[in-house]
Every structure is written in structure tokens, then in C-alpha cells.
Amino acid sequence: MADIDKRKGSLTQSSMKKRSGKSNKTKDKENKAGDETDRENPYVFKVIDETQTKNLLEQEVEEVEKSLASILQLENHSTELLEATQLDYYVSVFWWAKEQQFSVPQTSALFTAANQLLLNIKEKHMHILDNIRELKTMMSGVGAVETETPGGLDIFDSTQAKKIADYFHTTLLQHYKLYQFVFSHTQAEEIIGLDLTCELVQPADVPYPPPLTEGLPGDVWEKYVKTPPPTPLPTQESESELQARKEEAEEAKRQARLKQEEEIAQQDLILSKLTPEEIQQVVELVTKDTFKNLNAEMASRLRERENTILSRINKVHKVAST
């Protein structure tokens, strides 16, 4: 019985050790995001330090652009396409990290990784496959509790790492050839000049110079110097004038309507005086005039059709005789 109790005790102790080991691993995994700075991460606070990262996270996008241009020494971004491209890339990376609500160390690590990927194109002229392997190396250790060779982005969890990979695929890798072109070609310099003509003041007359209005030709003074007269303000009509104008318009409409009704009544009066025989004669005359032109046109078309048929028959006879 004593041996059985000892075995039970040993089994209980081993099971407790296993449970405690599992719980410690779980705690390590849960506290990994909170203990991002426990070990020295090769990507955290390397390009932008902690103070700069915190200040940038509190700024708007226009202020972020100005601050990053100063930090990264991109002073000619407004005139040089190369610096403008780099600044736009860095601002978009930082602002995306801010929208994802990454912590300060995570934001700094992501910015360092983005800078390294861009430098691989700019300085090392790295092929896209090699740069993808570089990104894969950066993400080594993501999702693992312990790893011997962390890549630098292991402070992110698996979900965040997937978002980062999708982001770099959309922004950098899909436009890889464009970045290669920008970093391998020299921007053409354009010299823009503007010639201005300035008229010198004429020598002064002794003992005093003439006034400006007398020193200019009359037409020039009238056209360019003289103050134009004020534009007269439109006169405001009184209510009585507006009412009178309205009544005049209504009276004109009424007179036009009466005139139209009178013309219609005269036409009806003329038609009422005609007998049925006279109306029939009028209709016959109009019909004859209308159909006369129509008959002439139809006869002309029939003659043309007849001539066409006859010419075809003659051709057939000639062919048959030959």
C-alpha cells in the first residue's frame, strides 16, 4: 500500500509539473506583447528612436511628412523625384502602422523593416525573390514562444504578421520594378528661367521732378492710372410701378387672347355662310391641286421604270441574237 501511495504521489507531482509548464508557456505567450523590450530587438528604435516614434504617433499626416523629411534628411523632396518617392513610402508605412494601432516598439520595428527592404532595392539592387526571403527572415519566430534566431518582427503575433505581409505585398512588391527604375535612373534636370524687363525712372526735371500724372502720356494715364467712375446703382422700382408693369403685362395677354378669339369667330362666320355645294367645290379644287402633282410624279416614275425594263429586254434580245 505504501508503494502504491508513493507512486500516486510521484504521478501527481509530475502531472502538476506538466500543468505548471503548460501554464507558464501560455503566460509567456500572452505576456510576449507586453514584454517586447525585455530582450534587445535588432529592429526596435533603430531608425527612429522612442521619443521620435511617440511624437510622430501624436501628429497628423502633414506633420508626419515634415518630421520624417527632417529625421531622414530628405530635404529636397519637393524637387527631386527620388527623395519624394522615399518620403511617400516612409509616410505611408508609418501612417498604416498608426491605423493598425501598433505599440510604440512595434511601430518602430515595422519602420526599420520597411527601411531595410527599401535599402535592399536602392543600395544592394536586390532581386525581388531575395528581398522576399529577407522579409521571411525578418518574420522568423512569429507566433513561437521561444526561438533561437528571432528575425526582429517576432514582437508581432500571427494575425499582425499576416497583415504586414499583405501590406508589403500590396505597396512594395507589386511595384518592385517601378522602385528599381526610380533608384537606377537619374532624374533629368530642368532649368527654368524668367526674364523680367524693368523700366528705369526718367531723369528729374530741374528744380523738381514732374508729378506722375504729368510724366505719363495722356492715353496711358486715362487707360491704366485714372480711377474709373463708380458704377451707377440700379434704381429700385416702387411697389406702385411694379404693380403697373404687372397690370400692363396682363392687359397685353388679354388683348392677344381677344384678338385670337375674334379671328376664330370670323373664320367660323365665313364657313357658316357657305352652302354644302360650295364646300364640296372647295374640297374638290383642293383635292385636284393636291393629286395633280402626285399623278405627275407617279407618271414620271412609271416612265422611268418602263424605260429601265425596256433597256433590259433589249439587252436580252442582243445576247440571244449573238
Automatic annotation (TrEMBL):
It comes from the Eukaryota. Keywords: Coiled coil. It comes from Bugula neritina (Brown bryozoan). Residues 47-74 form a coiled coil. Residues 25-42, 242-251 have a biased composition (Basic and acidic residues). InterPro entries: CLAMP (IPR032727). Residues 1-42, 225-251 are annotated as: Disordered. Pfam families: CLAMP. This is C10orf107.
